[in-house]
Design goal:
By secondary structure, the chain is mainly alpha-helical. The chain is built from eleven helices and no strands. The relative contact order is 0.12. The C terminus is likely disordered.
Length: 256
């Protein structure tokens, strides 16, 4: 039987979406604009992109760039954050450098990325990596540093080797906060790939928006690209959120 909470989980977002669509239609008709498209025009533009095959190729290119750049950021950011969290001397040495670089907008690195990698996927991937790696390293540092020492001491008392102590105790205990860092970093990476595609490549959803604006002022495709970016970003975030329900992740929620 469907519970009230389940109904609210689905009905509230759907109701909000319907209200937004109605407000969109009313706003377009009330202003009489011929530039901003209606939902029907956006849907027609999407159907045309699907039939041409460009939509799937652009979405796949964006996801591939995010996958490569974010994958590299996971390796470097998690590793760097773990070392900084476990060894205060390393955190004291590298922490100020990371904090100095983190506020710099990823778009500020565009000229340097193009200088080193040229105009293409390499520049876009490097921008994604820079944008996602630094916040992930800081979140990881904080997550490791907040693991109660009693957990580690108990593991050592049971004779766990350093690798087993890491995978059996430290990583599960820090996992809830690590997932927050992963979500934030993935959100940043998805934002950056769109901006990078507007500058450095000739495919992807970001390129689709710029190309639609420049080639005939197809604002229906501009809005369609924006909606696709938001929808894919939502699905990626939901995928990370689903990991929180795994048993070995729930172990780290110390209030349970």
């Amino acid at each position: 039987m469907v519970t009230r909470r389940q109904l609210e989980t689905w009905l509230l977002p759907v109701g909000t979406l319907v209200l937004l669509l109605v407000g969109w239609v009313v706003a377009v008709r009330w202003t009489g604009t011929r530039v901003f498209p209606t939902p029907q025009q956006v849907l027609q533009g999407l159907v045309g992109m699907v039939r041409s095959g460009l939509l799937w190729r652009y979405a796949a290119d964006s996801l591939l760039r995010v996958g490569v750049g974010f994958g590299l950021a996971l390796i470097v950011g998690l590793g760097l954050g773990m070392v900084m969290g476990l060894y205060p001397a390393v955190a004291a040495a590298l922490g100020p450098v990371v904090q100095f670089l983190r506020p710099i907008s990823p778009l500020a690195w565009v000229p340097i990325a193009i200088l080193f990698f040229g105009v293409g996927d390499g520049a876009a991937v490097s921008l994604i990596f820079l944008a996602a790696c630094l916040p992930l390293a800081l979140h990881t540092t904080g997550a490791v540093a907040t693991v109660p020492a009693i957990y580690l001491n108990a593991g050592r008392n049971f004779g766990l080797s350093p690798p087993r102590l890491f995978f059996r105790v430290l990583l599960p205990a820090a996992m809830p906060q690590l997932l927050v860092g992963v979500r934030v970093s993935l959100w940043v990476a998805w934002q950056v790939v769109v901006a990078a595609e507007m500058i450095a490549v000739d495919s992807g959803l970001g390129y689709m928006i710029v190309d639609a604006r420049n080639a005939g002022k197809r604002y229906d495709l501009v809005v369609a690209g924006m909606l696709l970016i938001g929808s894919i970003g939502l699905l990626l975030d939901m995928g990370i959120r689903r990991m929180e329900s795994l048993h070995w992740v729930r172990w780290g929620f110390r209030e349970e």
